[in-house]
Amino acid sequence: MRVRYSKYEPGFDDLTGADLMDMIQDFLMDSGFSDPYNRYQPDPDRTPTAEDLYDALLQALLEQGRIPEEWLREARFANRKEETRLYREIQKLIQRLQDEGYIRLSDAETADQGMRGEAQDTRLELTNKSVDFLGLKSLRTLLGSLGKNAPGAHVTRHFASGVESSGETKPYEFGDQPNINIGETLKQVVMKGLENIEERDLTIELSEYTAAMNTVVLLDCSHSMILYGEDRFTPAKRVALGLAHLIRTQYPGDQVRFGVFHDSAEEVPLGRLPTVQVGPYHTNTAEGLRLARKMLKKMSGEMKQIIMITDGKPSALTLPSGQIYKNAWGLDPVILAETLKEATLARKEGIPIHTFMLAREPELLAFVKKLTQITKGKAYLTTPGNIGRYVLMDFLNRKVSRN
Length: 403
Prior knowledge:
- This protein is of the alpha/beta class.
- It has three domains: 17-125, no CATH class; 137-149 and 212-397, von Willebrand factor, type A domain (Rossmann fold); 160-209, no CATH class.
- It is built from 13 helices and 13 strands.
- It has helices at 17-29, 36-40, 50-63, 69-77, 85-99, 128-144, 182-189, 224-227, 233-250, 285-297, 333-348, 362-375, 387-397; strands spanning 103-107, 122-126, 151-160, 164-171, 203-211, 214-220, 255-261, 265-268, 304-310, 316-318, 324-326, 353-357, 379-381.
- It is globular.
- The model is unreliable at 110-118, 147-167, 174-178 and 399-403 (pLDDT under 50).
């Protein structure tokens, strides 16, 4: 038998797209905290580029000791990095991520020349596959630390003719799912014979009725979320992604949408959530609640809730003229009144607000206590390290009672 020997050629052929995503997930989820300049001058419009992705892969490979010494030596003395083996191999990894459907690279066009931009001008975009990957990873990490409506998976006190059996039975009615209880039905017809069975003789098994829940997750992305020596926004995004994955896979009848609030507020599509950056500066909680109420009105079903993650008291307000009134000093009575007004409107619409606080300011605690009283929601004092456990376990454990 012949044995062929060949020279060993180092490379990264063993790395799959999932392996690469695992290596760079912190980079993809970064909210601006890792850049010291951006931490103090946040740019909410900042998006990752192909050059950023190259640097992230390079750093990850260095940390894992996967780059051969000769490649590093060649790169150190090269006139242009594009001529090195290391550069070519990392470009292959970027192409692998594209081929396996995790990312897209869109070449920005310069306004003047309409020409293709350089690597630093090439935007990195995440696909649905990468968002699913990040959501599943977030959910595993977080859980590891751990009225009738449309059918969903939230337990209620109602019974229905389907889903999980409760052991109860009732006579069949038109429209019931045909979960026939054979024993009880035979008791009804044993004397008159099966050939004479009628609709009223049928007995069906009752099941616990589960209801669909519509949720809006509001994330505070004001400057304070990365300003005071810790990144509070990235853990909040991880929670949101984990919750989205949980709902999409385990509660298919539910709907969840996302919003961020800062000087103002806007809805954020799930596909853009991982790369959302902190900023602008202030905390317009009233506008965030107003946005959440509008989003919930567009979602079918009666069971609704707002999950709000914040680290600061309200400090901004959108005036009728459209201007933003700001006051970061103390708890401004005008801002507070308008914010509590939005909470009152949510209460009238049957929307509880569950607040997860990432700070312990007395003014924030007082505000959240009042907010919770108005909407009959819940409030939790958490940290970036344990917020996921609080949010997900509260979502899973919440029992829905009959109105």
